[in-house]
Amino acid sequence: MIRILSVVFLLFTFSAHAAEAPTRVVSVGGALTEIVYALGAGDLVVASDTTSYYPPEAAEVPKVGYMRALSAEGVLSTDPDLVILAEEAGPPLVIEQLERAGTRLLKVNSARSVDDVRAQIETIAAALHRERDGAALIADIDAQEETLKARVAAQETPKRVLFILQHGGGAPMVAGQDTSADDIIRLAGAVNVVDGYKGYKPLSPESATALAPDVILVTDQGIEQAGGREAFLTAPGLALTPAGQNGRLVSMDALLLLGFGPRAVDAALTLQEQLNTP
What we know:
Blueprint: E1 25-28, H1 30-38, E2 45-48, H2 56-60, H3 72-76, E3 82-86, H4 92-100, E4 105-108, H5 114-127, H6 131-154, E5 160-165, E6 173-175, H7 180-187, E7 191-192, E8 200-202, H8 205-211, E9 215-219, H9 220-226, H10 229-233, H11 242-246, E10 249-252, H12 254-258, H13 264-275
Parallel strand pairs: 1-2, 1-3, 3-4, 5-7, 5-9, 9-10
Antiparallel strand pairs: 5-6, 6-8
Helix pairs in contact: 5-6, 6-13
């Protein structure tokens, strides 16, 4: 059954060859690049952006820059016959320049659920003429999701989690509703202790103490920026939380945790296991 692709819209510059399977693909957006490789089409990728570093082969291909700061010249220099773009890709002027140049574009909205990921896979698989591979990938995700649901149903009291996106200097930013962090926490069967606002906001020591998380969730990159686990847990406010007092700090790779791509359920399984391991 074809799912409603409400989260995906296509920007195509049609030509006589638009229906042909692409042979030179530029992929912009780490989660979308993961899908291309998971479909077995990594050999088609001639370039990607700097957020595309998984699988390891994706990190080795030429880069066209950060996905929000692309240049039309950089993309066009790779002579692509298909450019797959994350929703956040830009700036808009560059996208317009690529369209005017006659480049075939496929723009895919960000996934906020596992169904969204399935829709992304179906869309990209169709564009690459890899529908059979797409169906197999979705079947794998379906099986993982059943395992995840069973584990969540069997767990005891859901853990209260605070996700901190560390940016180095200044107050740490914490994830509220309508964020990838919130989505993955909920998918893992846990509770995001920040429920009073949407997006990211600075965290004060007083707020951290009041939120009283059982577990602090961060990215591996955030741990490195903070100077290590001990520095993170002893930060003002965090040291007084149940998580800080019990040393409950969970870290995961940023793309795995927040990318919400084909590994989203795998990420939730990993997070669920770590949250419920004493």
